[in-house]
Specification:
Helix content is 5%, strand content 18%. It has 463 residues and is mostly beta strands. The chain starts with 9 loop residues before the first strand and ends with a helix.
């Protein structure tokens, strides 16, 4: 029946079918129309590449992910018309054949979430002027990443995350002038902070999480990451101090005017690339991730100038001193988590001005005095305040002796005005914390904490 569809160019059989193909010595291209250009066989319970595919002379897109295929058949390397090859998310084994570089028309190559071993063929950095998406994440690849990237290449998305790769990052990555995302997280890279990536004009997302990067996070003036929106430096050996110099590395996160978030400017968490023009980089919001760096000292007052924050999580750190009263200026804040630190002093009355606050937790600190009894803070239960032995309030077993002895503080409107004018940042979401570090930033529009944490788990881990 299919052979009669002479104008059929797209055939989608994917989506959870349980297919098998009757193939033998007489297999020919008569069963499937030879003019098929895009073939979707994802999630079809296949255990090998169907032979009829080799007869599709004009095939440009093959989606065959989520199957039981263990090896890519050798004749696939002759499909020089292929622009999209997706064999991700299953049990593909063995090494990546250098013959893959015969596919010089590739725009998208997806080999993620398999059991591939060995080294990445060096040619993958320079074999194609058309390649935009290179996804080799979540495998068992070793050695260095490709060291050569030709000038004028079209690479937009490079994901080497969750492997066993090592060595320094190749400086030739600066030739990837179209690059928007670079993920080398969860590997063994050993290098200093790659400030030179700050010369890439379109880089929006960079993840270096869980490697052996070291030294100070500093940027010469000409390397300013002009488009950077998310950077993850977690679980490395970088400097332990949170300074204004670190923040000012990222020029795109410092703007002088306030803009409203467009309803379309949300992060897209699924890796769907049927339409290359719909890459998930329409984010207007900014973020920095420095989780598990063991940051200590006082929380800088300048954090209160980030008036576009939706989520601020400084939990599980070594922060001391008081909670900055400047946090009362974070008028868009929905989540504030300061748990498991060594913060002391009162909870600032200025926090009652946070009318959008949906989650608040300051448990396991050394806070004292009364919990502000008005505003949004009065809506949270004892779980948000426990573990502060000198704290009192209606939410706790320990009630304040006489509330009149604790007059409400007037909002400190002038004290922090200078810091506010210095950092008018357009950061829609900043998360700081989770087990000993600083997390700043992942954009989810107006999403609440549950959605933010779910997406963090998906993007920033190998699971």
């Amino acid at each position: 029946m299919l052979s009669n569809l002479k104008k059929l160019t797209y055939l989608g059989l994917g989506g959870g079918n349980k297919l098998y193909f009757l193939e033998g010595k007489n297999t020919s291209n008569g069963t499937f129309p030879s003019q098929i250009q895009i073939l979707d066989l994802s999630s079809c319970n296949l255990v090998h590449f169907p032979n009829f595919i080799q007869h599709l002379q004009g095939l440009t897109g093959l989606f065959i992910s989520n199957n039981g295929i263990k090896a890519i058949t050798s004749w696939m390397w002759n499909k020089t018309t292929l622009q999209t090859l997706d064999v991700s998310n299953k049990i593909l084994m063995g090494e990546i054949s250098p013959s893959i570089c015969n596919l010089q028309s590739l725009v998208f190559l997806g080999l993620s979430s398999n059991n591939l071993v060995g080294k990445i063929p060096p040619c993958l950095g320079s074999f194609s002027q058309s390649l935009q998406i290179l996804m080799l994440d979540e495998n068992k690849l070793t050695g260095n990443i490709p060291q050569t990237y030709v000038k004028g290449n079209a690479l937009q998305f490079i994901d080497f995350g969750c492997n066993k790769l090592h060595g320094p990052l190749p400086r030739a990555l600066v030739n990837c002038r179209m690059l928007e995302l670079l993920d080398v997280s969860h590997n063994h890279f050993n290098d200093s902070f790659p400030f030179w990536l700050g010369s890439l004009p379109k880089l929006k997302v960079a993840s270096f999480r869980d490697n052996r990067f070291h030294g100070a996070i500093m940027c010469p003036l000409k390397y300013t990451f002009p488009q950077l929106q998310i950077i993850d430096l977690s679980q490395n050996g970088f400097s332990k101090k949170l300074t204004s110099e670190i923040i000012t590395c990222f020029k795109s996160m410092i703007i002088s005017n306030k803009r409203q978030l467009d309803s379309k400017d949300v992060i897209y968490s699924e890796k769907t690339f049927l339409d290359i023009d719909s890459l998930p980089f329409s984010m207007s919001n900014k973020g920095v991730v420095m989780e598990y760096l063991g940051i200590s000292g006082e929380i800088p007052d300048i954090m209160g100038s980030l008036n576009r924050l939706v989520v601020l999580n400084l939990s599980n750190n070594l922060f001391t001193g008081s909670i900055p009263s400047s946090f009362g200026k974070l008028s868009n804040l929905e989540v504030l988590d300061l748990t498991v630190n060594s913060l002391s002093g009162n909870i600032p009355q200025q926090l009652t001005a946070l009318t959008f606050l949906d989650f608040f937790n300051v448990s396991s600190n050394n806070l004292s005095g009364p919990i502000p009894a008005n505003g949004q803070l009065s809506t949270f239960d004892n779980n948000s305040f426990e573990g502060n032995k000198d704290l009192c309030g209606i939410q706790l077993l320990k009630k304040c002796e006489d509330p009149s002895k604790h007059p409400l503080q007037k909002p400190d409107g002038d004290q922090d005005s200078e810091s506010g004018s210095f950092f008018e940042l357009y950061w829609m979401v900043i998360l700081i914390g989770y087990g000993g570090g600083l997390v700043a930033g992942l954009a989810l529009g107006n999403a609440f904490a549950v959605d933010v944490f779910r997406l963090l788990k998906k993007i920033f881990s190998c699971v």
